[in-house]
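User: I'm curious whether this sequence folds into something compact or stays loose and floppy. Could you predict its structure so I can see for myself?
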Amino acid sequence: MTQTIAPRVRTLVLLLLAAACALLAAAAPASAHAALTGSDPRQGAVVDKAPAQVSLTFSESVSMDDDSLRVLDPKGKRVDDGRPSGTGGTTYSVKLHAGLPDGTYTVAYQVVSADSHPVAGAYTFSVGAPSETSVSVSGQAAGGGFVGGLYGVGRYVSYAAFAVLVGGAAFVLACWPRGSGVRVVQRFVVSGWLALTAATLLLLLLRGSYTGSGKAADIFDLSLLGEVLQTKAGAALVSRLLLLAAAALFIAVLFGAYDKREDEEKRDLTFGLAVGGSVVAAGLAATWAMSEHASVGLQAGLAMPVDVVHLIAVATWLGGLTALLVALYRGPADTPVPALAVRRFSRVAFGSVVALVATGTYQSWRQLGSWTAFTDTRYGQLLLVKIGLVAVLVGVAYFSRRWTAQLAEAVPAVAGQRKKERVAASGGRGNDEAKASEKTRTSGKTGTSEKTAAAAKTGTAEKSGTAAKTDSAERTAAAAKTATAEKGEAAGKTSGAGKASGAGKNSSAGKGSGAGKGSGGSKRAAQLARQRAAVDAARQKRQRDSDPHRFGLRRSVLAEAGVAVVLLAVTTLLTQTEPGRTEEEAKAAGAASAATAAPSTGAVTLDMPFDTGGQNGKGVVRVELDPARVGSNDLHLYVERPDGTAFDIPEVKVALTQKAKDIGPLPVAPDHITTGHWSASQVQIPMAGDWEVAVTVRTSDIDQVTLSKNAQIG
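Assistant: Here's the prediction. I'll summarize afterward.
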C-alpha cells in the first residue's frame, strides 16, 4: 500500500506547489496601496498660465526622495526644482521653474506608500494649449519585472516558513510533547526557521531595487541598503532577524533540554516554553502588522493587534496541520502519532479557525468598506477566493475529525493485539533461550568427560611404559579414535610418550577452537538482533499503514495541506493588492476630477471673491453645480489666491436656500479632495427656481466671511 501511496503523495505535492507558483507568476506587479486621489493641475487640464507648483494628493501618507516627483516639458527636460515636500496631510508638491512656455507637461511620480508598497504613475496637463510631447506616460509601474517577481516569491516563502515554524512548535508543545524527540519533526521546524531567515535576508537585499529602479544590478547596492534600513519596512525586516535569533534559542531548548526531560519534568518546562514561544511568535507577526495594510488607514491602532492574532491563528492551524502530515507520513514506526495528539490538534485547530473567522471578518470590513467592493474590486474578488478556500479547508477538516474519532476507538483493540504479539514473541524467544542453555550444558559435560579420559589415558601410558603393550595399546587406540572423532586429528604414534604429547596438543587446539567459536557466535548474535529489530520495525510499519482509520486520516490531512498551499498563495497576492476601499475612493476621485475637467452642459459656475481681513484672507471661491437641475447634483468648490494658485483654508461651508418658497437653508458638507478643492455628490435640490448659494469661508480661528450668489436651477 505504501509503495503506491508515496509516488502519489510526491505527485500531488508537486502539483500543488506548481499551482502556487502559477498564482504568484500570474500576479500583476504590486498594486498601489496608496492611490492618487487628486492633483493640481488636474489630469488633462489646460491652464492659461504656468502654475508655480504641482501638487499631488494620495489616499494615505507616502515617503518621497528627490526623484519621487518629476515634471517634464514636451522635450523630456525636467522643469521642477527636485525638492518635493509635503504641504499637509497626504498632499505633496514640487515647485516649478518660472516662465515655462506653453505646451504639454508630464507629471511622473514614484513613491512608497505607508504600507511599504511602491506606487508609480504619470499624467499630463497643458499650459496655453496642448502640444506634442516626447515623454511617454505608459509603462509607469513599480514593483514589477524580475525583481518584483523575486520579491513576491520571497514574501510567499516568508509567510509559509512562519507558519511552519510557529505551527510546528505549537504542535509539539500543545499536542505531542514526545514528538520533540522525533527526528523528522525536528527537521520540519528547523527548516521553517532556516527558510524564514533566508527569505528575510533576501527581502532586505531586494527592497531597495524593488521600490526604486527595479534593476537586478541594484540588489547589492550598499547605498540603497542603507536607505532601506532607515525606512519602516527595513526596520521591520531587521527586527524580524533579531527575533529569529531568539527563535533559534527557543528551538534549541525545545529539541534539546525539553526532549531529554522526563514526562513529569516536562510539564514545568512546557509552561515556560509556551510563554516564551508565544512572545516570539507575536513579535514575528508584528513585523508584518506594523509595516503593511494594518498599519495605515481606518482604526490602525486596533487593526495591528487584530492582524497579529490573525497571523498566529493561521500559522497555528496550517503549520500544525503540515507538522501532523509529516509525522503521519514520515514518522518512525516505533513512534507513531497517537490518537490523543490528533484529538488535541483537532481542538487547537478549531480554536484557530474561530479566531481566524473573527479577525478576518473585521479585516474584510476595514479593507472593503462596502458589499459591492467584493465584486467590483480585485481585492474583493481575491478575498472571495480566499473565503472559498477556507470553507473547503474547514469541510475537509470535518472529515479529518471523523477519522480521528474512529482512530481513537480503534486504538485500544490495536494496542491489545500488539501486546499479545509481544507476549507471544517474548515466549518464543524464552523457549529458544532454554533450548540453547540445555545444549550448552550438555556440550560442557561432554567436553569435561573427554578431557578427564584423555588425562587418565596419558597417565597410564607414562607409568606402564612399553612393558604392558597389549592393554595399553587398546586404551591408546581408543584415545586416538576419540581424539580423531572430536577434533579431526590422527594420532598414529605407537610410543606412550608420543601419544601423551599428541593428546596435550589436541587439548590445546580444542581450547583455541572453542574461543574462536565463541567470538563468532557473539557477532552472529548481534547480526541476528539487528535483523530481528529490522523485521519488527517493518512489521510495525505494515501494521500502522494497514490501519484503515490511520490511512483515511493521512489522506484527509494531505488534502487539507494541499488546500493550505494554495490558500497561502492567495493570501500573498492579497497583501500585494490595493484594498477595495482605497480603489473605490480612487475611482470616485477620478470621476470627480474628470467631471470637473469637462463639465456637462447645464452646469452653473459661480465665482465669489472674498476678503476675511486676516493673513491669507483674500481669494476667490468658485462653486460649480452640475447639472444644476432638480434632483441629484454634484457640487465642486475651489479656493484660489488672487494669483490663481490653489490653497487650503481651515473650513468651508455651503448652504442652499430658496426664499420664494421658504425652503432652506439646506446644508451641504463637501469633502476635501485635494489642495483648494472640495466636493460633494448627490446634492438634492427639490424644485426648480432661483436658489441662493451661500458659502462660508474661514481662513483662521477668528477670520471668516459668508458670501452668496443666486443660481437658476432648471
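Summary: The chain has 15 helices and 18 strands. Residues 304 and 514 are 79 Å apart (CA to CA).
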